[in-house]
Design brief:
alpha/beta; Aspartate Aminotransferase, domain 1; Aspartate Aminotransferase, domain 2; 7-stranded mixed β-sheet; 4-stranded mixed β-sheet; 14 helices; 15% strand; globular; PyrdxlP-dep_Trfase_small; PyrdxlP-dep_Trfase_major; Aminotrans_3; transaminase activity; pyridoxal phosphate
Length: 461
Amino acid sequence: MSTVAPSEVSDAAADALYAREAEAYAAARPASRRLAEEARAHFYGGVPMHWMADWPTPFPLFLKEAEGATLTDADGLRYTDFCLGDTGSMFGHSPAPVARVLAERGARGLTAMLASEDAAAVGRLLAERFGLPVWQVCATATDANRYALRWARAVTGRPVVVVFDGCYHGTVEDAMVRLGPGGETQPRPGLLGQVHDLSRSTRVVPFNDPTALAAALAPGDVAAVLTEPALTNCGMVLPDDGFLDTLRTFTRAAGTLLIVDETHTFSTGPGGYTRTYGLEPDMFVLGKPIAGGLPAAVYGATAEVAARMAEAHARASAAGGHGHSGMGTTLSANPLQLAAMRATLEDVATPAAYSHMIALANRLADGLEAVIARHRQPWTVTRLGARCEFQFRATPPRTGAEAEAAFRPAVERALHLFLLNRGLVITPFHNMTLCSPATTEADVDRLLAAFDDALAQLTTR
């Protein structure tokens, strides 16, 4: 074992590398520059959804097409994609079975607020795969989480929800919170336009902290705990051994529902983290990849919770509220969504696909660890199924606060842009990578070689 002390990359070295890479980026992409300038006239931030400007690039990159694990930009430059729409295209861009049904379904009606012929099959597939018998379909995981929380409050008669510090459940308001310095619930930094006092209806506790969880549940007013099995958006945080079992025990004892959001942790296996590790949620949420990249999401419930949902709906209907539950939209569960979900569940998200994805992710994680060790960086690599992430700390984080404290914005943006200029894309908001069924060993090895080159430039004195 080497006795040489680690040598942390400096922000100054990262800034210098970023400056060089920014010049190269701009010189090679005149079409993206032109499109960015044109779009700025009518789109806030110069892009149709302002997150698209959050990549660490001098100006936004404009996409021409995407297929499998490959992106092609407006200048004809090609990239191997390890971001995959931040999980939305986890199974590759436009998987052939999904593309076929979209073409077939597109000429036969897109939305009618009626169940389509695929509905019964999709319900059966969801129940078989994830273990909960009753399901609903909506447009996004944000919607699914919001509706699951509404149902939880309706069936329990309780007002409060508990989430974990560092969580991410889309943009559902109840989860846009963080733990304050004194242990209080605070709005997430950057949250705009929120007027409701979130601390009145949400409690935040640290992940992997049974004592804090027990205290949050003690008043008896918590309708649900909403959690990912592993935190994934603040920097990946895996659960301690036994923590999820403790969570399940505590929620049952408190009469609190457990809602598991697997929108990102679906990378774990064909049945998500829930089936891989035998979780027993009362409700289950999955968005992004469930329809192969088409906007769609689902939430499921146990038979007991579904019966309580029916009772709550009946009470509301008796009071004159039929049809106005506040959950669902006219575009939810349209025929296009259901056809794409059926194709994904039957022919895309298969055990064989996961075997390929996870093997490559392990190859990538092992390689990242080797490169980091070779350059003596005090960093760690966290992995979960087809997903892995390098983090700027010596040991895996146990809480969201620890994960966020390890952020190195200057180093991150330099590494991301360096990789992008060499035709490699990783998730812009942190250092997450995904391997898809279309990813190859050669793709992984190219990423590792470029990462090695970047660290060599960052650590040269």
